[in-house]
Amino acid sequence: MSVLPVAEAVFKAHQTRATGEVRMRAGGRVSVLGFRDGDLVTADVTFGYQGMAQSLLGGHRIDLATLDALWARGDAGKLGEEDLHELGTSTGTAHELHLLSNVRSMAELASDASFKETAVEPAFDPLPGMRVVRAVFEAGGAEVDDAVFRCADVGACEDWLQEEGDRELLETLREFGPLSGLTPSQAALLRVLDLSGKLERVEGEEWRRREAERLAEEARVRAEAEAEARRIEEERRAEERRQAEEAMAWFQESAREEAARKAAEEARVAEAARLAEEARIAEERRLEEERRAEEARIAEEKRLEEERRAEEARLAEEARLAEEKRLEEERLAEEARLAEEKRLEEERLAEEQRLAEEARLAEEKRLEEERLAEEQRLAEEARLVEEKRLEEERLAEEQRLA
To answer: What is the pTM of this model?
Structure first.
């Protein structure tokens, strides 16, 4: 597979994890890509420059209408952080797309490229070498050499897968087959994997020869299979004819045997029908007798049941009357008990009233006696006070007269 000079130099720098510069020449100008440990850390673009807006367009971050709007505003060449934010792209992502777009543009235009190990001063954060390699290989376009590929181990290619369709593409390469409708990114992936030894490669002419041989072999096997199928079909038809003749002979013999069997069967069926009819009549007679006996048994059971129920009703009535008598006696006894209790209660209340009345009279008598005694005491005290007062007046009068 033909590889652009720049792609070969960048791939070598990445694979060897080298530190140095890839110098590209085009029309007397020299552009430089600086690598440290296989990752891109500086870029001096002197030809094929792509502006930020063009890079975003190539990276599918904006469409042509947006690009035209940016050119109309005069902002296409100087997109700031706020502009990128409005476009839905971070500054870091925009920087990577810008670098990769310029790498891709320089790879397309460069007529020569070489790598030289030398000290490199980083100008920006390292950009993974795998992404740079994919970008320079995309410069080769969407066409690949006249060859077919097979990827036996997709997992071994994992490090090189960057886009959503990459794995799906490799899954289609489980077997050798022609490729069509590749995008530049897919073609770049195949070039990288082929150069890395991750793919099995067969030149187109060789594959077409093998494919012609395979098709010829398939045609031969198919022809042999068809001939064998025709032979088997002829044998099958002959066997079917033989089996049909045998079947016809067997059918005729079977028809004769069937006629005899049918006659014997009809006689057997008639005899069986006669015996069955006799058995049916006997069975109907037996069932009728059993029915009558059952009806008599049921009538007897019904009579006995009615007698049993009448006896139960009589006994229940007697028990009910006895219970009513017992309850009446208990009621009368209870009424007598309550009357006696009432009488005793009345006597108790009368006795309590009598005793209360006697106590009241005794208390009144006591109080009256106490009142009379108190009156006598007070009268005596008043008398003594009066006598004392008169005595004092007498003594005072005597003193006055004396």
So the answer is: 0.43
